[in-house]
């Protein structure tokens, strides 16, 4: 316990880094900001992606005309897999987890 997968984020002003967490500490020095860890029946969340869907591309100027997150709510969605804690050592397959993300604090926070 404690060493299982967790989801951290970092950001940079440059695509090649350096990437830092919310405290300013580099990710290379374990400075990422925790987004999701084991809790309740969710054990070792990982393998995450952010759901994006491009809606409408102008082929004439190759510019995106609209980017939608969840098509209905227009919110960012994180997808990840986890193991059910009640069957960590059993035969259960990984489970798909989906949550909305809120960025009002400038860093992603999972919401229901």
UniProtKB/TrEMBL annotation:
Q: What Gene3D superfamilies does the entry give? A: Glycosyl hydrolase domain, family 43 (2.115.10.20)
| Keyword Transcription carried by entry | no
SUPFAM superfamilies, A to Z: Arabinanase/levansucrase/invertase (SSF75005)
Superkingdom, natural source: Eukaryota
- Alphabetically list the UniProt keywords: Hydrolase
Instruction: Kindly provide the name given to this protein in its UniProt entry.
Output: Glycosyl hydrolases family 43
InterPro entries documented for this protein? GH43_arabinanases, Glyco_hydro_beta-prop_sf
> Could you state a single Gene Ontology molecular function term?
hydrolase activity
């Amino acid at each position: 316990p404690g060493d299982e997968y967790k989801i951290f984020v970092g950001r940079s002003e440059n695509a090649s880094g350096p990437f830092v967490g919310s405290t300013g500490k580099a990710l290379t020095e374990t400075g990422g900001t925790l987004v999701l860890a084991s809790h309740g029946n969710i054990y070792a969340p990982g393998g995450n992606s952010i759901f994006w869907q491009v809606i409408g591309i102008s082929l004439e100027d190759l510019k995106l005309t609209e980017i939608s997150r969840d098509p209905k709510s227009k919110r960012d969605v994180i997808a990840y897999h986890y193991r059910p804690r009640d069957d960590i050592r059993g035969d259960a397959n990984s489970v798909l987890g989906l949550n909305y993300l809120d960025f009002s604090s400038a860093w992603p926070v999972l919401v229901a």
